[in-house]
Amino acid sequence: MISTVFILLYILINSSIATCKLEYDNNNCVFISNQIDCEGELIIPNTTSCAGNQAFYNTNLRKITFESESKIKIMSNAFQSSNKLEEIIAPGGFESVGVGAFKDCISLKTIVGYQNTTVFGKNCFQNCLSLHNFTFNEQMMFDEYAFAGSGLISIDLTHIQMSISTYFCSNCVNLHYVNLGSNQVINSYAFANCSSLSQVDTINGLKIVNTSAFMNDPIISIRIADDAEQLFSCAFSGTKLRNLKLPNKSIILEDSVF
């Protein structure tokens, strides 16, 4: 009876380990060619520190662990559309995260090793619906659509000065709170169509709010800086703003700001 239990446990444990055939390109970046058959948990050996373009596109992998202690470079669309992927671990961190690297990974909850990454490409976490938390720092640079349609609940930039890119977190329906800290320039559509975003805090107020930056968000109040320069068209269109105080100095207001 005991031996039978051990055999069953052995089968269960090993059946969860993916049997993907790993291949390597000319840059020693890992990839697989049997995406559909690749599922479960995958451990990538320390012989590589790079996941190639579309390396694990549309796989059924649940967890990926890099053994390497070096920083891992994630190339474009490396894990895109792997909709069962829940966790990725890189003990040495990530050197960069490429364009669309985790786009449409709707089950992705946990990313270990991103905190010291500086470059995040366009659409890198777009539509990651299960990604509720992300810790930002000043070293990070995000291209457009970085978190568009993701599951982020709140964003805290209290002590962080960073560029908030176009469509940065647009269509994030779970996002309810944003602290912009001392950031005063918000790019176009950065937080547009965030249907739960009711509170936005700033330290010194906003100076430039680009086109449709907060469009269709249920925010009630927001601070505009005393030295504000311009509010672009539809910046606050469809919001619930009340008693917005504008500076006494000349400020450029485009059509249909509100």
TrEMBL record:
<dbReference type="InterPro" id="IPR026906">
    <property type="entry name" value="LRR_5"/>
</dbReference>
<keyword id="KW-0732">Signal</keyword>
<dbReference type="InterPro" id="IPR032675">
    <property type="entry name" value="LRR_dom_sf"/>
</dbReference>
<dbReference type="Pfam" id="PF13306">
    <property type="entry name" value="LRR_5"/>
</dbReference>
<feature type="signal peptide">
    <location>
        <begin position="1"/>
        <end position="18"/>
    </location>
</feature>
<protein>
    <recommendedName>
        <fullName>Leucine rich repeat containing protein BspA family protein</fullName>
    </recommendedName>
</protein>
<dbReference type="InterPro" id="IPR053139">
    <property type="entry name" value="Surface_bspA-like"/>
</dbReference>
